[in-house]
What we know:
Layout: H1 7-10, E1 34-35, H2 37-41, H3 46-67, H4 71-81, H5 102-109, H6 111-114, H7 116-121, H8 138-148, H9 150-164, E2 169-178, E3 183-192, E4 210-211, H10 218-224, H11 228-231, H12 240-249, H13 251-263, H14 279-291, H15 300-316, E5 320-330, E6 333-342, H16 347-356, E7 360-365, H17 373-382, E8 390-394, H18 401-414, E9 417-421, H19 423-435, H20 441-454
Parallel strand pairs: 7-8, 8-9
Antiparallel strand pairs: 1-4, 2-3, 5-6, 6-7
Helix pairs in contact: 3-4, 4-5, 14-15, 14-19
Amino acid sequence: MLIRPRLTDFHGINAAQADLDFAIPFFDEDVPLYLDPFMLWRSPSQQDQMLHTGLINAFNHLGTLAKSGNQAQAVSTLILASECDEVGLGTSARRKGKRIGEEKASEIISLFRRIPQYERAGFRHFEEIQLFVDGISKDRVSDIACNFLKSFLIDFTIDQCNRLGVPIQPVDVENVYDYRANTFVKHTGVTLPVNPNDGSPIIFVPRRWLRFVPWLSYEDYFHHYCPQDEVAHTPEELTRVSVLNYNRDHYGVVDAYVKAKERTAADCVNDPLFSQMPAMSARRALARIKKLPTGKTDGADREYEALIGKLLPSMLYPQLDFAQEQARTDDGVSIRDLIFYNTRSTPFLQEMMDDYGSRQITFEIKNVRQIGREHVDQLNRYLADELGRFGVLVTRNPLQRAEMTRTINLWAGQRKAIVVLTDADIEQMVEVFHSKQRAPLEVVLKKYVEFRRECP
């Protein structure tokens, strides 16, 4: 079974996250990013700007409905827009969210009457609702935007699937916004990728629109723009609710904040799913590793695991996408692994797939003076199924002859390959990472070539 499966890995698509225009969806959890509507507003693309205009018009139509006596329709439409499970963005562990209730939706709709500027001209950035209504944050903003943009996102998903060869099949999609009827409708027979766990449709979101926190957010406003002394004279009175109430009666403060953020729009960029650590930080981590004793003294084993757990994902990216750090137990021994998706983006990685069936690659971390037979056997037992028959032991010193012979015999008898990265190899990877002349993965390749030379 794949560890933390993604759509591309499940379908055998050879693609690294860094090379794709969308965030690769997981089947069992959300991607921890959010669609930020401001990214469309500040985009140089006319298409993105037009999509933002359509998004804002759709949201402001809720105010038109309410003012024309159709409050109930406005509320029900907003409730439908408040959750978008198909895109799988956020922090849910099950790709399932919960819509807002009627009371919260009514509170949002009331802003079109409560604040004169919205009553007269509507919103220019609907993310501003975060600054007036408690319980509304980045996840709601993202889901509302995704639902109003769902028709475009469906077309984007189909195009990306056709380019990559991702299987698609006819499914029904709920709550697709019809801009002519200004309402949500159901589309039947839409060809989309599906979640193999439950057959639900999956929709991609352009990576260029994704951020961890929206450019306009309550937290940013509170810490950098909110006139806190005017809101409350004592810290105990400065609650989120008090700030939101103040904003409703002092729209000029919010307007000044939005205009300031618009002026600095050039600084608003999308966030990557994974950020590499700086080269100097990698060198500092290496220096700490070299000073650590072997074994468990003063928690040296945990510190070694933590440092390696930070170094390797950064140094092996983007050739290997980091999947998960996990602990497992073998014969009562706690073992720390780093699991990577095999992108097959280099001849070496393709060979790992072709010869060893490694759809994912395991790095087992051992802070011991010498690797023993039991350590080799533990990793050997783990190398099966989608993890394949190639693994890496990360430890302090080279294998002694008996353990090296053990790994060679495993290759000869079971065609399993286990290579070892020592402190010296990690140091070489850090130097390569710092120089940016070559990929640190080449050090792993070198160790594999040396291993194969020893094999019969």
